[in-house]
């Protein structure tokens, strides 16, 4: 069964809105506390005595430090009434007038007084001078402050010396003390402290003897203190005036006592600390000031002064002088808890902070350096190990390689030996070929000539008149001339082949002589003319003047001329072949052999000096143009053997030009 959703009423919405807005306000209130301008607090410190008194100074410092630590904006005014020197009632009146002018219109938040005179003055004039500001007193001896209606809106700290506290502190440091000699004068404060005698005697009855050194002159006191027995100690209360009426300052008296007394001196006031007393439960000006300031802060924060109980002895502290403790061999462990120790040797980390920091930094730095060095030593050792491994690996590798090389060397030696054998074999073959091939060829050519001569002489005359025989006879002679030509060609081939082989194998014998190039040209001229039997191609030889002298094998140079001019004749059907001999700028012999022949295609002109290379001949090539392809190769090797150069240039169907140079002597 479906339930009907209840409808939201207007009332519900208003309630929800109210709740939400309330929540929002609360959030705003708590999340961002309102910033109210804090009023500057004004506090007057009214001291009974002069600033130069250690006690007053300590109180003032304690108050100032505490107030400013709590609120640095606090405005603090300090007055020193100096009532130890000035006791005239007129003086008090003048002071009151002065303060009225200074503070009469000022709203003070608190008046902190030190010592009795100040609090009494403040109580008397508070309405007219200080607008009834709350009073916080400290350092007050007289517990009998006025209890009338004036004593309202006031609290503070009494200065209550704690003799028992000091005696107990002495006993905790030195359990052997049997007697305390209590130095005290006849002043009002001395008398009031002595009034506590009965309670003290009862407190230490049977345990410790208390001897009161009161009513003595300074001399008597010194004498007494200079001869105190062992296991005794002094409690110095106060001795500002002696029996003879002599007065002494705090420091003066203690200095004199300390000079004569061999036993430890304890005290009741902190201004003696550091001037010769071991310490004790000391009434401290500074803590009086601190506590007074703390009370003032509480009051300024809204607490009712009358609801704060007056403090009695809480401002006293166990305080000791380390240098005096050390003098008597006392140790810090025996001090009462929460003792304050002055002149204690500061821990080394405090006294030598910077030196220590430098040492720490140095140690850290050196540690880092050591770590880095260790790491580098380790890395170096690893590297050395790796290097050693690498070396041994390389040594092994070198040994392997050496073995391999030795093997290869042996193989090469064998191969060299075999090559030499082959070379020898080749030489033997060349010799055999040159001898065994040329000898029968010479015989063939010789017998061909003999047969032709005999045939011509004896048989041809018989054929005269018989046409058929004459024809046969002519053919026989033609065949004989073919055999002769082929034989000669074969001889040339064999000669070329042998020459090339000898040059390449280094077996060629070079019969070098000093040759005059002009003479050489003149010698070769008739031979070259032999290549041009008919008048279709003419040979023109131009021998320049003053041709150089060269050192070469005359026959080999002839061979070069024959090859080049022979080729020119071979590949020139008509026109001219010229031989021009000249001298280069360097003084070398230069010979250019040009023809007007078929020419050489440009793509192969550089290949014609290769062994066995011949430009593809066409069908119409004559028998005579067929060569071995070795002539130019031999010529190139001869020229280069003498340090010269040979090259060709050519234009197809126009002619070719071959140039060679040979260095002069
Ligand atoms: P071959 O005995 O065949 O002449 P060569 O080494 O002397 O051998 O010449 C190589 C080739 O160079 C020849 O076959 C020819 O084709 C070409 N040749 C050499 N001289 C000439 C020339 N003067 N004119 C045209 N072609 C030439």
Structural write-up:
The strands form five sheets. A five-stranded parallel beta sheet has the order 2-1-3-4-5, with helices on both faces. The relative contact order is 0.05. The two termini are 138 Å apart. The protein contains 17 helices and 19 strands. It folds into five domains: 1-36; 42-158, Response regulator (Rossmann fold, 3-Layer(aba) Sandwich), CATH 3.40.50.2300; 163-282 and 315-342, 3-Layer(aba) Sandwich (Rossmann fold); 353-473; 512-662, Heat Shock Protein 90 (2-Layer Sandwich), CATH 3.30.565. It has helices at residues 10-31, 54-70, 89-103, 115-130, 163-173, 188-194, 197-204, 218-226, 250-260, 285-300, 322-327, 348-351, 353-459, 467-505, 517-529, 554-570, 631-641; strands spanning 42-47, 75-80, 110-114, 135-140, 154-158, 179-184, 209-213, 232-238, 265-267, 279-283, 316-321, 340-342, 512-516, 537-543, 549-553, 575-583, 589-595, 645-651, 655-662. Residues 1-36 and 619-624 have low confidence and may be disordered. The chain has 665 residues and is of the alpha/beta class. It binds adenosine-5'-diphosphate. The site of adenosine-5'-diphosphate has 19 residues, from helix 16 and helix 17. Residues 563, 567-568, 571, 595, 597-598, 600, 608, 614-615, 627-633, 656 line the site of adenosine-5'-diphosphate (ADP).
